[in-house]
Amino acid sequence: MAFMDKLSEVANMAVSAAGESVEFGKAKAKILSEKNKVKELKEALGQYVYDTVKSGDEINPDRAKDIIAEIDRHLDVIANLEASADESASEIKGTFGK
Questions:
Q1: How many CB atoms lie within 10 A of CB 95?
Q2: What is the pLDDT of residues 26-65, one digit of tens each?
Q3: Own/partner pairs for 50-54, CB < 8 Å, 24+ apart?
Q4: Cβ atoms within 10 Å, residue 94
Q5: In angstroms, rounded to a whole number, what is the distance separating the alpha carbons of residues 59 and 48?
Q6: With CB atoms 3.0 to 4.6 Å apart as the test, which of 14, 16, 67, 71 could cross-link to 45 if both were Cys?
Q7: What is the Cα–Cα distance from 2 to 41, expressed in whole angstroms?
Q8: Residue 4: what are its φ and ψ, rounded to 5°?
Q9: 27-60 as b/e: b if 16+ CB within 10 A
C-alpha cells in the first residue's frame, strides 16, 4: 500500500504543478499584452508631441498627463502580473522540492 500512497502523492503533485504552469503561462501572456499596450501608448505620446510641436501648436499638458497616467496603469498591471508569475514559478519549483 505504501507504494500506491506514494504514487498517488506524486500524481497529486504533478496535477498541482500543471495547474501552476497554466497560471504562469497566462500571466506571461498577459504581461506581453500589457507591454504592447505600453509601447503603443508611448508611441502615441511621442506622435502627439511631435505633431503638436511640428505644427507650432502648444502641447496640452492634460492630454499628455492622461496618456502618461494610462501608461502608469499598465505598468502597475505588469508589476502585479510579474509578481503573480514569480509566485507561480516558486510554487512549481516547491512542488518537487527544488
A1: 18
A2: 888 999 999 999 999 999 999 999 999 999 999 999 999 9
A3: none
A4: 13
A5: 8
A6: 67
A7: 58
A8: -65, -40
A9: bbebbeebeebbeebeeebeeeeeeeeeeeeeee
C-alpha cell at 46: 511621442
The phi and psi torsions of 54 (rounded to 5 degrees) equal -60, -35
Residue 27 to residues 17, 37, 60, 98: CA-CA distances in angstroms? Answer: 15, 15, 36, 22
The letter for the amino acid at 22 is: V
Model confidence pLDDT, tens digit, residues 59-75:
999 999 999 999 999 99
CA distances 12 to 3, 28, 47, 96, Å, are 14, 24, 53, 11
User: 59: which DSSP letter?
Assistant: P
Cα torsion angle, 28, 30, 31, 32, sign: positive
Q: 42 phi and psi, to 5 degrees? A: -65, -40
